[in-house]
C-alpha cells in the first residue's frame, strides 16, 4: 500500500507577523499613545505625552522575543480572563450554560 503524500506549501515568516510601527505591533503602539494622551489630559500638560516613549521601548523589548506576544495577551483577555469556572475545570472552558450551582463543592464529600 502506497502512502499518500501531504501537500506542503512554503509559509514565509513575514506573512504571519502583525503590522508594526517603530518595531511594535499596532495594538501596543495604540495603547502606548492612549496612555500617554490620557496622562496628558489628566495632568493638563503636554509634557506627559513623553510617557509614550518608554512604553513603546518596553513594548519593543517584549516583541523582540515573540512578535505575537500582544496578540496572545489580548486573546487571553478575550477568552481566559472572562472564564468564571476556571477553578472547576482547571483552565478556560467556555460554556453555553449559565454558571450557577445549587451546591458548594465542600458539601459533596
From TrEMBL:
Keywords per UniProt: Membrane, Transmembrane, Transmembrane helix
An example Gene Ontology CC term for this record: membrane
Keyword Cell division on entry: no
Source superkingdom: Bacteria
Main localization, broad class: membrane
The keyword Coiled coil is assigned to this record: no
Subcellular locations according to the entry: Membrane
Regions crossing the membrane: 21-40, 46-63
InterPro entries in the record: T4SS_VirB3/TrbD/AvhB
Protein name, per record: Type IV secretion system protein VirB3
Organism lineage string: Bacteria, Pseudomonadati, Pseudomonadota, Alphaproteobacteria, Rhodobacterales
Amino acid at each position: 500500500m502506497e502512502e499518500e503524500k501531504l501537500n506542503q506549501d512554503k509559509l514565509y515568516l513575514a506573512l504571519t507577523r502583525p503590522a508594526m510601527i517603530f518595531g511594535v505591533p499596532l495594538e501596543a503602539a495604540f495603547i502606548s499613545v492612549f496612555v500617554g494622551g490620557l496622562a496628558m489630559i489628566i495632568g493638563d500638560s503636554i509634557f506627559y505625552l513623553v510617557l509614550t516613549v518608554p512604553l513603546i521601548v518596553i513594548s519593543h523589548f517584549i516583541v523582540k522575543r515573540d512578535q505575537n506576544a500582544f496578540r496572545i495577551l489580548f486573546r487571553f483577555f478575550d477568552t481566559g480572563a472572562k472564564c468564571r469556572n476556571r477553578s472547576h475545570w482547571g483552565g478556560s472552558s467556555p460554556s453555553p450554560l449559565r454558571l450557577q450551582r445549587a451546591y458548594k463543592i465542600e458539601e459533596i464529600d
